[in-house]
Design a protein that fits this description.
The chain is α/β, with parallel strands linked by helices. It is built from eleven helices and eleven strands. The termini are far apart.
């Protein structure tokens, strides 16, 4: 699959679903900087997608991420919410699905009126306004998102992988959306899958996967895991 990047840094920092919580992202950035100062800068930072929707500052999150605020090389992965944003610009009727998943909060953060959308009206007008409000730099950042990232031990993606399919042959749809078939599978995927997409109260660590989506937009907990050859450590950012 052409959208997989591979590297073998001493340490990977993986950050779960941010969902518009710029305040928590800032705390995680600071936590990573402290960790790097303590353990060394041979590292890479990977965000697992879902930067937008639900929280109130989607635009601010993209502003912050696109300039790489981290103390090392940075890889941004794509989530299903970014996929919905892209679809909305092409097909405004997608708002019927996107609004249920927090899309109105994203539009509002860009100054797009949402009252008519709440009434089921003016979909095309909202898409046109959003297209005009979306900075070119944000468009380029969204277009640059990768589908997965891996090293010798870990495979990072947004939602998970389909059992029985080699990691390099996973479909984009599964990497962005899969749930039950992946979450319930005990199989060895060849590497430990590090993912988000399905909110959990605490990081869910299984022999074959690690889920770090701790529902930041609702819980005030944005989870970051430091992945190393000898194991892993969790860095958390908490707030209201």
């Amino acid at each position: 699959m052409e959208d997989t990047q591979t590297a073998n840094d001493a340490r990977l920092y993986a950050i779960g679903d941010i969902h518009g919580r710029l305040d928590l992202l800032e705390r995680v950035i600071d936590a990573i900087k402290r960790d790097v100062a303590k353990y060394g800068d041979n590292c890479r930072i990977v965000t697992l997608g879902d930067y937008i929707d639900r929280g109130l500052n989607s635009r601010g999150v993209l502003d912050r991420l696109m300039g790489n605020p981290f103390p090392g090389p940075y890889v941004a992965l794509k989530g299903n919410h970014e996929a919905l944003l892209e679809k909305f610009l092409v097909d405004p009727d997608v708002i019927e699905q996107w609004r249920r998943l927090g899309g109105l909060e994203t539009l509002y953060s860009y100054g797009v009126p949402v009252s008519k959308l709440l009434a089921g009206e003016a979909y095309q007008d909202a898409a046109d306004r959003f297209r005009a409000a979306l900075p070119l730099e944000h468009v380029k950042f969204l277009q640059s998102l990768k589908m997965s990232f891996s090293n010798d031990r870990y495979f990072l993606c947004h939602a998970g992988v389909r059992p029985g399919v080699p990691l390099q042959q996973q479909s984009h749809d599964d990497l962005l959306w899969i749930r039950e078939e992946f979450l319930s599978s005990p199989v060895d995927f060849g590497k430990i899958i590090v993912h988000g997409h399905t909110p959990v109260k605490e990081p869910d660590v299984r022999p074959n996967r690690i889920n770090i989506d701790t529902g930041a937009f609702a819980t005030g907990r944005l989870t970051c895991v430091a992945l190393e050859s000898r194991g892993y450590r969790f860095l958390k950012s908490e707030g209201r």
